Amino acid sequence: MRIIYLLACLLAFVGCGESGKQADHDHGNQGKKALVIGFSQVGSESSWRTSFSESVKAEAARRGIDLKFSDAQQKQENQIKAIRSFIAQGVDAIVVAPVVETGWKPVLVEAKRAGIPVVIVDRNMALDDDSLFLTRIASDFVEEGRKAARWLMEATGGTCNIVELQGTVGATAAIDRMAGFKEVISAYPDAKIIRSQTGEFTRSKGKEVMEAFLKAEQGGKNICAVWAHNDEMALGAVLAIKEAGLNPGKDILIVSVDAVPDIFKAMADGDTNATVELSPHMGGPAFDAIEAYLSGKRDIPKLITVDGGVYTQETAAEEYAKRKK
Ligand code: GYE
Which of 45, 109, 120, 276 has the least CB density, counted as fewest CB within 10 Å? Predict the structure, then answer.
């Protein structure tokens, strides 16, 4: 019945009323209905991503939210399928961490017609109509790139041949981190990016690309630093540099983003030098916005930001002790 009702709503291009949903999800729990929220996650390419998934699940459980979790394995088509399935199930809200920026409009129009609010978390979607989403919870990725570059320019006095391990092509976190980093180093004539390629945000691809960079740059002698768009690829670069017979963190400096537990261990061991923190705890603010919206609030800001500091070897051991599982 429910599916037929939704299909009818979709075909008629009219928003499906809240009332049907409320009745469906009322579990008679002191009159309080459990919210049903669909979450389409990118995948599990990095340990940051895994912590993010765990954090969202834990936050949902804490609030008594029935979370439908879908792992897209880095494929946008899987995310679009998941969103369509959430719409067909008549969830109360949808949270999406998009893999790339483009190509979302049609499915978001479908969600809007079904009257289901969508919250974007982490990476962005390129949309020309901001009525297609409720809000976005994210950090300022451009600023993360700037922070990494400022640290490196300070550490090297502005003279440095840099190799860059980019994140997933087309992903906001890669596009913006690259832009912020470039902006800062452009003020230093003796700092340049001599090679740049995607390592897809994974440790194995980061290692593979770093091996190629080392070969192409006199076994690494011509490289002053690695700028990795995430910690996972930085950890892959550490392995490649060691295998090439050089000392990561000393012969070649390494700066990255995320602040996952493993990078604190690597910094404490002297293998990498700095990381820019990105909080994986975006589920709380996403659920807050959804709960506020469903209880009638309408003046929800279109962007809610999270912020993080820069960490170096100095505090790494102590931070690792706090953060390791
Ligand atoms: O930095 C990386 C990842 O989109 C900000 O995605 C995110 C990035 C994060 O898997 O580790």
Answer: 109
* Helix, coil or strand: residue 271: coil
Residues with CB under 6 A from ligand 1: 45-46, 48-49, 122-123, 173, 201, 230, 232, 257-258, 278
Task: Look at ligand 1, atom 7, and give the residue with the nearest C-alpha.
Answer: 173
Spatial distance between the Cα atoms of 214 and 220, rounded to a whole number of angstroms:
4
**Residue 10 or 303, more confident:** 303
Q: Supply 188's token pair.
A: 């230093």
Q: How far is the CA of 280 from the centre of ligand 1 (A)?
A: 9
Distances (CA, A) of 25 to 76, 171, 284: 29, 35, 21
Instruction: Give pLDDT, residue 33.
Output: 83
Structural domains of the chain, with CATH = 36-140+280-307 (3.40.50.2300), 141-277+311-323 (3.40.50.2300)
> How confident is the model over 218-255, as pLDDT tens digits?
999 999 999 999 999 999 999 999 999 999 999 999 99
Would the pLDDT of 15 be above 50?
Answer: no
